[in-house]
Batch of 4 targets.
Target 1
Amino acid sequence: MIKEKLVLKRKVKIFLSKTLISIIILLIGLILIKKNSNIKKVIKENIYEKSIHYMNMKKNYEKYFGNLLSINKTDKTIPVSTEKIAYKKETKYKDGVELTVSKNTLVKALESGVVIYIGKKDDYNQVIIIEQVNGIDTLYGNINVGDIKLYDYIEKDEIIGDTNEKLYLVFQKDGKYLDYKEYI
């Protein structure tokens, strides 16, 4: 019992230390931005005008600060399915592919990553975009999104929604569209 309290107390101290360090870094950054217009210009160019790669941010954060909250390995999501997307026909569509699938086909994440967009985009109907750990942004179009929310971390093979008869996939890295045949 005493050992458990000491471990908990230590975890709380570590959590508070990491939080305070993060706040201090944020405040120093804000002071520098306020004082120096060149830093303000660099921030504007790199944050507002370029795409933010959340997976790189996550890797760097974990490298320097570790996991903010420790998660038990037993709490991991277990995939329901590990098979590839079953489709009847593939057709090139715009910058990606249109897959003809069965009604109510469950769609799983092709790779782990962070959800960076949920909504409507072009004529793909409902869309979810996942920035994968390998740096590729994958657009899943014509999908009924399940319980996924923006900035959720999705594991490979985790169910992200379902689709009826048509599923659109687009793969993009560093602003360039990739050949879908390598990924499905």
Target 2
Amino acid sequence: MGDKDRLSKLDWIKAGYRGLAKGGAGALRAEALARDLKVSKGSFYWHFKDVPAFKTGVLSHWEVAATDEIIEALEAQAMPAFDTLCLLIEHAVEMPDGEYGGPQVLAAIREWARYDNQAAEVVKSAEKRRIAYVTDLFKRAGQTAEMAEVNARLLYAGLLGLEHLALMGHADLKADMMVLLKRLIAVP
């Protein structure tokens, strides 16, 4: 059985996340990933035209899995807005497992977006949709449009900052996010 039969496109994308978490965007190279997977580069090129196409695949997978699929799953629950916000926090604080690079991969994606236009556009698009969705949830919870938008940004910013603090051992991400949500929901 050849490499192309053993490894799927998703296997390569997962390897990309692990590489990204360990070595940043510079680790997203066919040769390095093939070496880590102990296969030839042929499998990589079976699934991806080139490294830029692979990077597009990594970013696209992240955007869909970490934004679109979560929003769709939450909306399918048809719960009250506050319950949906609580469940959203449950999803948001789940750190990627080692197969996807572990908790460091989130920071690595953001770092990549600091100097790569394509990564920056994907992160910006995902964040825009995330904040719009959380704004909508706050509005459904009875807040004015203006207050809902501010609180959505605060909740999202809290998540980003608390993720960093949690990685350093200075925060309980889930507990702190729930405290923040309850304070933002209680604001008139």
Target 3
Amino acid sequence: MDVLDLFQRYRDDVYRLALNYTRSPQEAEDVSQTVFLKLMEQENLIPGREKAWLMQTTANQCRDLLRSAWWKRTEPLSDTLRAREDPIDETVQVVLGLPPKYRVVVYLYYYEEYSAAEISRLLHIPVSTVTTRLSRGREILRKKLKEV
């Protein structure tokens, strides 16, 4: 499969994962672009494992961005810009409000339908950590959704 086909097929998945990590549409677009540029340079991609490679590379790229000194010095734009965006249902808003370590695991599990073992491989963390984060993330969601 060529890069253009992979781009057409997985661009939304890569973007959504990046957006989930960064919570910034512009940063998510930059991460997505970087991931697909890296895909173009990739020579040893295993057929049938393209999506896993893309998701893992996206997660790694986002973590690198979030650890960067530049990211730590930036401040989010005012909430007035969000008023122009499409409305998001309450559940998605609560998921986006989770701390990043829970938000990403919950997103991958429920929205991308990865198993705990697959998430473990994608994020390079133990399966027990994934299940713990899922459990804690669900508990936080349960409490926040009762408030809403």
Target 4
Amino acid sequence: MPRSNGYAPLYWGVGATVVVADLATKTVAADRLLPAYLPRDVIGGAVRFTLVYNPGAAFGMHLGPQSRWIFSALAVGALVLLWQLFRSTRDGDWVRALALALVSGGAVGNLLDRLRSARGVVDFIDVGLGASRWPTFNLADMAVTCGAVLLALVLWREDAEPSPAEPIRGHDAPIQH
């Protein structure tokens, strides 16, 4: 595993930007969108700001009174795994580094919310049509989702590439008669 792949500025810069933007928008939402649970139209009814607190995880997944600590521990474990994936990123694979930075920054943003308040993660972006709504989310969730999709594509591409020890079959393969 390489000690440094040269993408530390990208990883830390993007990750820190996600955390700062997430915390700033959550602070504004918690201060300005009172009372909670009251939708405010931004783009008609399709995009609304609605302050909610999510004590669970994505899509309202809840594991009882210990959810806060269980999901915090899972986030720390995920951050360790993401760091290991970043450290193993090859030179030239800036897209993988970017994807890992997005997921890591989003995970840190939501982890900080869980640690700061028993109410849970601050969510406020509410999209949908009429009664058909996507679960309310925040910038950290957007970063995690975009980063995870990007990371899945990168890992799929890596899996599809032949390994250096594996010969490539093609026009240079011996002709059998």
